[in-house]
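Proteins fold reproducibly. Take a tokenised chain:

. . .
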Amino acid sequence: QVQLVESGGGLVQAGGSLRLSCIASRNIFSMNTMGWYRQAPGKQREMVATITSAGTTNYAISVRGRFTISRDKANNTVSLQMNSLKHEDTAVYYCYATGSYWGKGTLVTVSS
């Protein structure tokens, strides 16, 4: 069993930046894919960014060029640097790991 704990959410003005972090309860080296998903009020959960154990990244079209996902195997963390935030980025952001492991989420609110 793996526990994922997110942190770093909060309130920010449009155009600002936030950095989300996700700490896994055990070594994540063997997990093929980790990533971030988000769910806005009244909408389905959607993929934001993923990263494989080899470092291959994938981003939703809406965040390309603004968000960067990174993975620190030594510290069992996955981070999401979010720049140039927009009001439509407002959502609960969830950390994900292969095996259908999910964190409880962290709220990001972007004021316009």
Summary: The first strand starts at residue 4 and ends at 7.
